[in-house]
């Protein structure tokens, strides 16, 4: 009988809003408990009530912003003691802060397999971060980019990420789960306070500058008079909410553009939309785009490396990131389509999602990485 592997999956922050689409949760559900003894841990945050994912242990360290800045000595000390007590065989680390912490800690802990997952670009753009990576990455480390573009970004830095230790495992969506959670068109619109008769362009994403919502709102403004039945709805919250609300008022679109705020498991509401658009300036993959496909919607998105192959595969429309005119042109073309054509495009996107982004394949690849059975031979597995 194979040894039961004791695994720490460590994430930076607990997010109660999207537990069903959370990458860590999707990985966890693919790890059979008879083979993997998993501790699911978070450096910051905790749920409002006790929950258990797949019956596994959860640990909430509840570090604060001060703890997580600077040298993070308190964090290092507590994690070092915790890992020594638990005796992990493998650690799976999400995003830069957790990876960077363990690059230092593992010089003492000597855990034989450390796997760092990069969710996007820019984490190692700073010289000091690259210098640390080059100094601290050793034979115990493997790295995963959530798309081929992210894996290529890491390797291009030439600071310890190589074709022999870095791969891409493209994010996937649990389509059956997502469909089981989806509200009907009427239910979703009622829940979001949207008109049942409108033609709705929809987007899901945090309200932060990199998501490009400013350009989406401006593009909508250029065509709103030609399509009086059209509305724009954006699900998500964030620091740009007030700025976007001010822009909407400035453009006279208060009755036409709806900021729907943060919604738990936002993919539940995707059928409220007729068209799904993702105007991001940069993305690691763009999981929300897959959620749009799962709603059988025609999809539009920025022509950026991580999203380009998804959009082309789904038969979606592309536009230059941050280009209001190009985005407006593609939106106009989509709105000019008949209902039947939009339905056909949405079905094409859905079939592509089913064919190319299977959740079981995703989970199998992560399981193989944790077990050490998957050879690292390039930028994609």
Condensed summary:
The protein has 381 residues and is α/β, with parallel strands linked by helices.
Could you characterize what this model shows?
The chain is an alpha/beta fold and 381 residues long. It folds into 2 domains: 5-172 and 359-371, Rossmann fold, CATH 3.40.50; 175-356, Rossmann fold (3-Layer(aba) Sandwich). The protein is built from 14 helices and 13 strands. It has helices at residues 23-28, 73-86, 95-109, 127-136, 148-156, 175-181, 185-192, 213-223, 241-250, 287-294, 308-314, 324-336, 339-356, 359-371, and strands at residues 5-13, 36-44, 57-60, 90-94, 113-118, 141-145, 166-168, 199-204, 230-235, 257-261, 275-278, 299-302, 317-319. Strands 3-2-1-4-5-6-7 form a 7-stranded parallel β-sheet, sandwiched between helices. It has a 6-stranded parallel β-sheet with strand order 10-9-8-11-12-13, sandwiched between helices. Strand 8, helix 8 and strand 9 form a beta-alpha-beta unit.
Radius of gyration: 22 Å
Q: Given the C-alpha coordinates, what overall shape results?
A: elongated
Structural class: alpha/beta
CATH-wise, what's the superfamily of the largest domain?
Answer: Glycogen Phosphorylase B
CATH-assigned fold name of the largest domain? Rossmann fold
Strand order of the largest sheet: 3-2-1-4-5-6-7
- What's the SSE pattern? EHEEHEHEHEHEHHEHEHEEHEHEHHH
Poorly predicted segments: 375-379
| Beta-strand fraction estimate | 15-25%
